[in-house]
Give the backbone structure.
Amino acid sequence: MSNEATNKQVTSQAAEPSAEEVLRETLKRCSPETIEAALAFKSSGDVSLVPTVVLGIVERFLEPEMVDVLKNGDDSVKFMEDLGLDSLTMFEAIMMVEESLGVSIKNEELWDLRTVGDLKVFIASKITGEETVQSAKFYPIEQVAATMPQQEPFLFLQSAEISGETASGVYEISGSEAFLAGHFKHDPVFPASIMLESLGQLGVFHFLKTQAGETSADKLSIYFTGADGVRCHRVCRPGETLALSIELKRRRDPMVVYSGKIMVGDEKAVTAEEITLVFADETASESAAAS
Amino acid sequence: MGRQRVFVTGIGLISSIGNDVSSVLRSLRNLSHGFAPFIPQNEKLQGEVKLAGTVKDFDLSSSDFEDWQFPSRYRIRRDKLRSLPPHGVYAYAALEQAIESARLQEDDISNLDTGMYTASGGSMRLVHNNMSRMHQLGPMRCPPTGIVSSIAGTLSFNLVAAFKIRGNSCGFSSACASSGHALGYAFDDIALGRQKRMFVVAGEDLNDESVLPFAGMRALSLKDDPGRASCPFDKERNGFVSTGGGAVLVLESEQEATRRGVAPFAELLGWGQASDGHNVAMSHPEGLGLIEAMRRALESSGLEAGEVDYVNAHATSTVIGDLSEGKALTEVFGKRGYRPKVSSTKALTGHGLSLASALEASFVALSMKEGITPGSAHLKELDPVFGDLNVIRETEAVAPAVALSNSSGFGGANVTLAFRKV
């Protein structure tokens, strides 16, 4: 694909190229295997060829040093984090996939395609018409910030992923958090209370996305009300990434209870048996007041 | 903090007369032009326009950026290349040269006190291609980098991101005065203490879409003899030869240049601008805007007209434009008894829209450091209307102590920059 597009198509009056020629031109920097698989798919509709085409297109956009990461990895390889592709490159790759396989991918569908496996399953389901198994839904920082009542500098959740009654999230301790200057003097340690807060925030995010129904975040008040069975297993410092996870244990309105855990790499940092949030739907009280 | 002095501490050049400072200097000394036959990519367009100031060792003619070829010393990753217009590659290369020339380290480039102003008319080729693709295939088939690679401002978007610039940034677009404006406002930012360092980057494409539309304005020379196709101030001048390329100047405060211990090319003393308010495409016949731009540049710099010993004229080799500038020079200097040397280096390089002012400003700064005053090539017979001017033909082996560099753009936008030898 080129940002200069197809000058020849615009200025030339030559005979229309065949479908095969167009496809070969679209995939001209892909491997021969990719091109042949795409041509074979066009003629046979054989869905088993889709992974070859999709992976071949992804490979074509990779920096040379990343090719082995793709080839040696499995379906869990992530486009951005593992392969270094940015969103514009993803758009380029998706456009080429669309042109090659004759599918159309909506903007909102794109955000859920984070791994090689996501993309393969998604394209195959597009082609066959079969419903995909809903994988975890990913939310980048922009969507997290747009949803949460907590905001900078008191937002300790940088991205989140929701899958049913569980959610995971990430917070990277930058070291520039203001409170680290005093916690402690010359010895920055991420406070345990803030780690618990970050788990609570992941719970809030899960609640707002999956439990709040039609009530919008700005019409819902939600507060941390309690935590039980909390253990801190290690000290966390700047440069480390907190891998947060929570699971919905029960909901008894106006309370909702999650269990939570924070890992740093393979090490357990915090566990909490119960994190309890209390919420109130302000639209309901407004309606009651009005009546 | 008082007004800061501003120095040119780095220069990078990709031009028709050389792709680095030393080869450009050689061309200026020898008055070697950079013209070669212009071969339009669209064969239907061949015939009328014979020459262009071609950029050697760069082949950006393909409609696919992944086919572009340029010297291997400039390694541009695909994820940076894909959103560049063709002239973005020239600018990128010139910027790398300028960084090296100014001996800047990574910390000097990416900080809140270092900014970047750019000048470019955008890429008409990419606008055309992307819009054609959209009309043929629909909006979802527009390349995702289609806008950032094509619209005016493209150099700013791309290079600020690629070089992690964190200070002031903006793209300027006033046609042939664009990079003059960029230099002027960069000067202000440093002089007023808003920034310590500014990169000023200019670039233009060299392809059918960037060159040939000027033929319709009857602004291009249609001659095939380089010596006759761009001959500013000549009686037979008949239009300009188009060029593309990239030019970058690094401007730094005196404090910063001293701290780093870098030897400047020249001091940028000040600048002036004014508009003709006359015509969309032609300079005022009496040069009114340029007269005021020069006066303001002198005032801004604390100079008397008599101190100026060289003017690098805008002079593109068009009948009307050169005449207008000649009258302006006579008004500012001749009528007061001053006869600074005047030359137009466009006789060598051709004229490159937004590129022109930065390219010529760098020639002036380079000349001051290297001890030359560039001549006005291709001048066989001085048009008698310029009889009052001291138009020098050969390059002289003496540096100007104080020089002006003029630029005039469409709509009658005029910029004059004033330099002093360090």
Summary: Chain B touches chain A through 29 residues (CB under 8 Å).
